[in-house]
Amino acid sequence: MYSTRVNDKWSAEDDVSLIENAHLERYSTCLWIFPNGMPCNETVRGRDFSGHLRDRHGVVGTPSSQHRCCWNGCQEREFNRDCLIRHLREQHLLWRWPCPTCDQDFTRKNTMFEHRDKNCPRRMA
Ligand SMILES: [Zn+2]
Ligand SMILES: [Zn+2]
Ligand SMILES: [Zn+2]
């Protein structure tokens, strides 16, 4: 995956966009529960989830309108649409953000950046 890296031109942001792209292209099974109690079970690509939620599960409205997460087994409270999508990626699709320089990985991209810039044991000075 990193075979094209050129040491002096490599930037961590390139790695992050590779990771993000891999998340977006990966297929996951949607376990959103329909009102009749049946799980959706459709296979959805990462980048298509927000459209899928809108079209199949009625997650529509303004970015601030509230939605409950109906994912199988989820006990979470309501979210606005953007938070719901982020929640889905973190908690249900299990997107992870590995640190480009050590082996740790993180649920949030921001946390990973903070780690990389401040706390990473292999941080380059
Ligand atoms: Zn679904
Ligand atoms: Zn949930
Ligand atoms: Zn690290």
Automatic annotation (TrEMBL):
Gene3D superfamilies noted in UniProt: Classic Zinc Finger
Name of the protein in its database record: C2H2-type domain-containing protein
Organism: Pisolithus microcarpus 441
